[in-house]
Design goal:
single chain; about 375 residues; TIM Barrel; about 60% helix
C-alpha cells in the first residue's frame, strides 16, 4: 500500500489504463500493471488503436492473413481490435470476478462515423458484444444526441456501456437519465438488473485547452485568474449531479433490485499545457464511486509522486463559484461542450480513417507478395 496507485482503491476510486498495445499483452506489461499498480480496467479508442498499429509491425502478419482471406480494411480492423480487446479482457477477468463485476472492464468503441446514427450504432454495438463474448467488455458510445437513445437500448439489452466524449454536467445529466431508463426498460421485461455495468466518461484537459484560449482573448485580470479552472469546475458539477441522482427514491428502488451505479470516469487526464502540474486532473478528483483513466506516462508519474486523498468534495464545492465567474467573463460552458464534442468526433474520425488507410496499405502490400 506504499504505492499511491494502490491506495486510491481504498479511497473509492478505480484506476484504469487509457491505452492498449499488443506488445503489452505479449510481454507481460499489462499483467504487471494489474498486479503492481492495481490497474482494474482499460479503455481504447480509434486514435489509441491507430497509434498502436502505426508504432509496431506486430499486426502485419494478421493483416496479411486477413487480406488473403478476402477481408477489407474495416473487417481487418475489427478482427485486430477485437482480438486485442478479448485478450485484455481475459487478463482482467480475475479483477472482474474478485470485485463482483464492479471492475475489470475493457472498453471497445463503435465507429466514430456512426456517432449521429442511432440505429447503426446499436447494430454495431450488439455485433461487437457478441463477437468479443466477454462479460467484462464495455461498448463505448459517444454521448451525442443520437448516442443517448443508444445508451438506453443497450442497457436494456444487458450490454455494458461506456458513454464517452462528455464535456458538460448538462449532457451528463441526460446520460444518467438514459442509463436509468434503460434499467427501467429491462426491469419491465422481467430481466435481472445486476451484472449490467456502465461508466460515464467525462473529458477534462480538452476543456481547459479550449476555455483557456477564450480567456486569453478576454481582457482583464479576472479572466487571467481563471485559466486552468474550467475543467475541474465542470467535473465538480458533474459529480454533484451524480450524487443528486443517487439520492433519488427512483434510483434507490433500482439499486434495491440489484442495479449497479453508473460511475463517473475521468478521461483526458494528462495535462496538455506544460505550465500545469502533470497530476492536475488526477489529484483533485479522487473520490468515492469514480474511475480515473490514466495514460501510461501519467500513471507512472502518479506512482512516483501521487499523494492520494479525497479532494473531490472540495473540487465540487468550488465548482459553482468558478462557473459563475467564467460566465461573467462571457464563457458559455454549454457552447464550449458542443464545440468540444464536435472537435472530438472529428479527431476520432480522422484517426479512424488514417488507421483504415494504414491497414489498406499493409493489405495491398501483402496481396502483392
Amino acid at each position: 500500500m506504499t504505492n499511491p496507485l494502490r491506495r486510491l482503491e481504498a479511497l473509492g476510486q478505480s484506476v484504469w489504463l487509457d491505452d492498449l498495445r499488443r506488445e503489452w499483452l505479449d510481454d507481460g506489461t499489462l499483467q504487471t500493471l494489474i498486479r503492481r499498480d492495481g490497474v482494474s480496467g482499460l479503455t481504447t479508442n480509434p486514435a489509441i488503436f491507430a497509434q498502436a498499429v502505426e508504432s509496431t509491425d506486430q499486426y502485419l502478419d494478421d493483416i496479411a492473413g486477413q487480406a488473403r482471406s478476402g477481408a477489407g480494411p474495416e473487417a481487418i480492423y475489427e478482427h485486430l481490435v477485437i482480438d486485442d480487446v478479448r485478450r485484455a479482457a481475459d487478463l482482467l477477468r480475475s479483477v472482474y470476478d474478485r470485485t463482483g463485476g464492479a471492475d475489470g472492464y475493457v472498453s471497445l468503441e463503435v465507429s466514430p462515423h456512426l456517432a449521429h446514427d442511432t440505429a447503426a450504432t446499436i447494430e454495431q454495438a450488439r455485433r461487437f458484444w457478441d463477437r468479443v463474448d466477454r462479460p467484462n467488455l464495455m461498448i463505448k458510445v459517444p454521448g451525442t444526441s443520437a448516442g443517448l437513445p443508444t445508451v438506453r437500448v443497450l442497457i436494456a439489452d444487458g450490454i455494458n456501456v461506456n458513454v464517452t466524449l462528455l464535456f458538460s454536467a448538462a449532457r451528463y445529466a441526460e446520460v444518467v437519465d438514459c442509463h436509468r431508463q434503460g434499467l427501467v426498460d429491462r426491469a419491465a421485461r422481467s430481466l435481472p438488473l445486476d451484472g449490467v455495468a456502465s461508466v460515464a466518461s467525462f473529458f477534462l484537459s480538452r476543456i481547459d485547452t479550449h476555455v483557456d484560449a477564450l480567456l486569453d482573448a478576454t481582457p482583464g485580470t479576472m479572466a487571467a485568474g481563471l485559466r486552468g479552472q474550467a475543467a475541474l469546475a465542470c467535473a465538480g458539477s458533474a459529480y454533484a449531479a451524480f450524487l443528486a441522482a443517487e439520492s433519488t427514491a427512483h434510483w434507490q428502488a433500482l439499486a434495491h433490485n440489484g442495479a449497479q451505479r453508473q460511475r463517473l470516469l475521468w478521461a483526458s487526464t494528462s495535462a496538455k499545457d506544460p505550465a500545469y502540474a502533470e497530476l492536475k486532473y488526477v489529484e483533485p478528483l479522487v473520490g468515492p464511486s469514480t474511475v480515473t483513466t490514466l495514460p501510461l506516462a501519467t500513471l507512472s508519474a502518479y506512482r512516483q509522486r501521487g499523494e492520494p486523498a479525497r479532494r473531490l468534495q472540495a473540487t465540487m464545492t468550488r465548482a459553482e463559484r468558478i462557473t459563475r465567474a467564467l460566465a461573467a467573463c462571457g464563457i458559455d460552458l454549454d457552447r464550449v461542450a458542443a464545440d468540444l464534442e464536435r472537435e472530438g468526433l472529428e479527431k476520432f474520425t480522422a484517426a479512424y480513417d488514417r488507421l483504415l488507410e494504414r491497414i489498406d496499405e499493409a493489405r495491398s502490400q501483402a496481396l502483392r507478395r
